[in-house]
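re: that chain from earlier
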Amino acid sequence: MAKDKTESHQNAPARQVGRNTVSGRQLLDFIERIERLDEQKKQLAEDRKLVFAELQAAGFNAPTVRNVLRRRSAKPADVEEAEQMLDMYLHAIGMANEAPLFRAVGMMSVDLSARDQVIEAFKQLVPTEGEIIVKIGKQPVRLYRDANGDAQAEDVVEQPKPASKPTRSSSVPERPKRDVPDVDAAGARELGAKAYHENQPITSNPFPWDDKRRAEFDAGWREASGTDGMGPAE
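^ sequence. v structure.
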């Protein structure tokens, strides 16, 4: 029996090691997959460069687009915090013309979220005995402290102004304007003669003082009446 066991052990195939082992083939598979991913990554990088080249050829600014991509991939809270920090630093070293709070005040009329942020910021400035009224856009806001000292905010409802009573004017009322006839000089002379025959005075001349047709009207009236229009005919 011992001899049979020895012979069977000697006849068993030897275990192979090295590149032909199962673990070696598995490792090689991982390596080849990584190499393929590296090739894909390299190809994607080349494609990305081509897209940016087309973008610049179309007139867009590449650094600005990269900034937009970073903002889109970041969390909104992180973007807001970074912008606030940047504003604070720029204002601290004198590179910002206005403080972030003042810039936010300017946005209150168009951005409701900015409006709420400004109100919260102004609450910290409300004096113990007093109030602050912020009027940006059409809706003023009153900030005050209640009996417990907590800052509160409320919209201010403006009362309509009473209608003012009409004042009497001491000036002489204007005379109604006359319609100026659309005629030439000869027509104005005919109108003057017609006015005389209709028993209208020479002062009924409808033409303005600086209109040359006024003299033609007067001439036609005088010719028809035989007088100068200033008194009875002789």
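The longest helix spans residues 22-57.
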